[in-house]
Design a protein that fits this description.
Layout (H helix, E strand, L loop, with lengths): L9 H8 L8 H10 L6 E4 L6 H10 L6 E6 L2 H13 L5 E5 L13 E7 L22 H17 L2 E11 L8 H10 L3 E4 L14 E2 L2 H4 L5 E7 L2
Parallel strand pairs: 1-2, 1-4, 2-3, 4-5
Antiparallel strand pairs: 5-8, 6-8, 7-8
């Protein structure tokens, strides 16, 4: 469902500015494909801005009866960007909300079939596109990010109905922000079990998570975990 451009030229930039195309890394698209697999019921994209994954998911859900998509973010500027992305892509099926995912969320417990947590992270998997990241990160940053990610993941888990899915992803390649966060979550969330995300076999790790790597996959480095709420 996408074209791969060997380079960015003025025509592509003009088309993107006009809303005719949208630039999105293949690994980012993979996260949305996992969340949009077998669409049904109510889905929440918890940390949704800028909205590329949200609109991809919305298209997967398009035409499926009885579905609802909610997406939101923390800052007003991010929420506005999310709304602008939806508008430019002619996606009008997304209900946009502003909230702080580290605190109490404005939704009832067990009210969604799928919750996607594309968590705020260091972005180390995107250094090939954003080389400046390496100059602004300190090793001590990862512990603070992992704490925030775990809190958001726990808050999100309360919203998943029995039998529903909780998907966690980052664009980081750090174990502290990925496997360790998931292990800490499973250590306290006894009602959840890890399940295999719908990705190509070669992207699965020995522990059942999904990873992409720039040097192997020619994409950004992403991490995907999927959990199911028992019930």
């Amino acid at each position: 469902g996408a074209f791969v451009a060997p380079s960015i030229n003025p025509d592509l930039r003009r088309m993107a500015d006009a809303g005719e195309i949208y630039f999105q890394d293949e690994a980012s698209q993979l996260v949305a494909a996992v969340a949009g697999h077998n669409p049904t019921g109510r889905l929440l994209d918890l940390c949704a801005a800028p909205g590329g994954k949200t609109t991809q998911i919305a298209r997967a859900y398009s035409g499926v009866d009885g579905t609802l998509i909610v997406a939101g973010d923390l800052h007003e500027s991010r929420v506005n960007l999310l709304g602008s992305t939806c508008e430019r892509q002619n996606v009008d099926s997304v209900n946009i909300v502003r909230y702080d995912a580290e605190n109490l969320l404005p939704f009832a417990d067990e009210s969604f079939d799928t919750v996607l947590v594309d968590a705020p992270c260091s972005g180390t998997g995107t250094i090939r596109h954003n080389p400046e990241i390496r100059y602004f990160l300190d090793p001590s940053d990862f512990a603070g990010l992992a704490k925030k990610q775990l809190q958001i993941l726990r808050n999100a888990s309360y919203l998943v109905r029995p039998g529903g899915r909780l998907i966690y992803s980052t664009c980081s390649i750090q174990f502290e922000e990925n496997e360790q966060v998931c292990e800490a979550f499973l250590g306290t969330a006894s009602s959840f079990e890890q399940t295999r995300p719908h990705v190509p076999e070669r992207m699965l790790t020995s522990t059942g998570f999904a990873r992409t790597f720039p040097h192997r996959d020619q994409t950004d480095g992403f991490f995907i975990a999927q959990f199911r709420r028992r019930g």
